[in-house]
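Students often ask why we bother encoding 3D structure as a string. The short answer is that it lets us treat folding as translation between two languages. Here is a chain of 116 residues written in the first language.
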Amino acid sequence: MRFIADEDFNGRIVRGLRLRSSDIDLVRVQDVGISGASDDKLLEWAADNERHLLTHDARTIPRFVRERLVAGGHLPGVFIVDDLAPIGSSIDDVLLVAECSDTREWKDSIVFLPFR
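And here it is in the second language, the structure alphabet:
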């Protein structure tokens, strides 16, 4: 699976993911030159590049996902990671998704992590 972490995503989670899985395909918005992009532009970029979005933004991202879907758009999937959850649990669950599922399972969905 391919991921993009939004601009405010916890860097310790990104580092932990990369340390625990050297083959994880994860970029940050800063890495691909879209820092400061609006939520709808970020979702568009993720869809165009077939990357699942990792974010902590449970406040605005779900609205933009719904608007995109209602308008007939699609996206690989969005994972909203609780920013108050233990970092280790967040890393474990992102790796579980990456290693034990198929990218098509998450199409057009919003998933909250860590799993409960």
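Translate back mentally: The first strand starts at residue 2 and ends at 5. Keep this in mind for the problem set.
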